[in-house]
Amino acid sequence: MKKQFNFFYQFSLIFLILISSLACSSNDDPDPTPIEKQEDILSVDAKVEKFLLDHEIPGASLAISKNGKLVYQKAFGLQDVQSGKAMTPQTQMRVASVSKSFTGLAIMLLVQEGRINLDDKVFGDMGILGNSYGSKPYSARVSQVTVKHLLQMTSGGWVINGNRDAIDYQQTLTNESYFDWMLDNATLNFEPGSQYWYINSNYFVAARIVEKVSGKSYSQFVKESITDPLKMGSTVLAKNGLSGKQANEATYYGQGDTKGFEYNFNIERRDGDAGIVTTAVDLMKIVVAMDGNASKPDLLRSDFYNQFIQGSNPNQNFANGIAKSNQFKYFYGALPGTRSGYMFHSNGMAVTLIFNGNADYTKTNYSNFANAHDALMVELLTKDINVYQDIDQF
Predict the structure, then answer these.
(1) What does the pLDDT look like over 2-49, one tens digit per residue?
(2) Among positive and negative, which fits the CA dihedral 32, 287, 175, 220?
(3) Per CATH, which fold does 42-99+219-387 belong to?
């Protein structure tokens, strides 16, 4: 009996020592998968806060990635001035023309699937949309428009009296009725492919191509092919008026002649060219999925990505829903009370920055504000980039 007691005693003692050793190891050794906690970077925060103060913008949301990792996210100022509600990283905002990158990517996904080509004609007997819209015979120019002409802004027009973009007219019409009206009344002032001219209506038409080819609504195709796979749960299409605001969407504040027009236009018409509502972090998810960087898988294979970023003869720097300059690729958006942008660099850095305020873009001095926004983003991507932690908050 004594030997049996000693055996169990020795076994119990060894077991207790082992448990104690493991407990000490757990407390003393670093966790192999530590919780990643962001630390404020004052030098970054100061730059954004100064921009808001200098330009009288209520609030902003920022996301920065480095080699495919979300290394910084921060909200600044107010999402609603009247209530004093603070902006948060979860606050949704319109991104205006940055939506064109969603449409360009949607078209490229259809190209990648072999369902269309960028050189396919859009209208007429052999066109993707055929003769479905409008009541008048198509002009020779309209019949020559290709998918690429729309995306690269070289269609030649879609303008009304005084060369105004047709997208601003007939605000009460449904999208289908508006498309009929546009084809009957808007003109192409140049031969397709011959001139670069930034016209929003090009992307309205491109969204209709997405619908025709996919057999789904534009919103459904974008959801199933882009936002769901990338887990962009805060990304939706905007709805008209104050009543159409998302529960967590910021209030918009225009300046000058744009003040009062923040909700006074048909944004649902603008689905393909300006209709996306999202967060800075969600926007970063699509940026790192279309940046050509191997750190995270892209939605487009390399050969189709190369088509995506290919510019036209009239403008080599404006591609198929994305713009480029030297080592930068980017896009900006502006609506009454909204300014947004994304930018990524060949050094592996990317930034998304969205404001719920905007200067008056109807004035010639708007370029001062736009240039300041651009300079801020360039600085965040290229200056002191070692201040960012090696964390990933995606």
Answers:
(1) 344 343 334 344 433 333 343 433 344 444 454 578 999 999 999 999
(2) negative
(3) Beta-lactamase (3.40.710)
